[in-house]
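Friendly challenge for the regulars: who can give me the structure tokens for this chain first? No prize, just bragging rights.
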Amino acid sequence: MPTGKVRFYDEEKGFGFIASDDGQDVFLHASALPEGVSVRKGSRVEFGVADGRRGPSALAVTPLEAPPSAVKAQRKNADDMAVIIEDLVTLLDGMGGDLRRGRYPSNSHARKVAAVLRKVADDIDA
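First reply, four minutes later:
Bragging rights claimed.
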């Protein structure tokens, strides 16, 4: 199976590109990743390749290693993260109150909150 590094991946949009070791750019769609697995720029991956509508597309992507430690250098400072976490708690408290009253958030609002949670989790885990 070919290997390469993730050149770009946007988790919100669900796609990105892999720079394969043979120099080819390969389209990476979120559906090619195992359930619950995410990749970041610089992650080494192994993948299958199929011809897509606009060129080669990755299939059955398997992460081989975590991205380089340069990602940790891009972390937000602790004070900024504290403010983000406090705002997130406020957002979730409001959503919790609505749920206690039997009201679920709209689908669009729920997707936005889920995206924020994923992004904050990535910032903490960086």
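Strands lie at 3-10, 15-20, 25-29, 44-52, 55-65. The first strand starts at residue 3 and ends at 10. Your move, everyone else.
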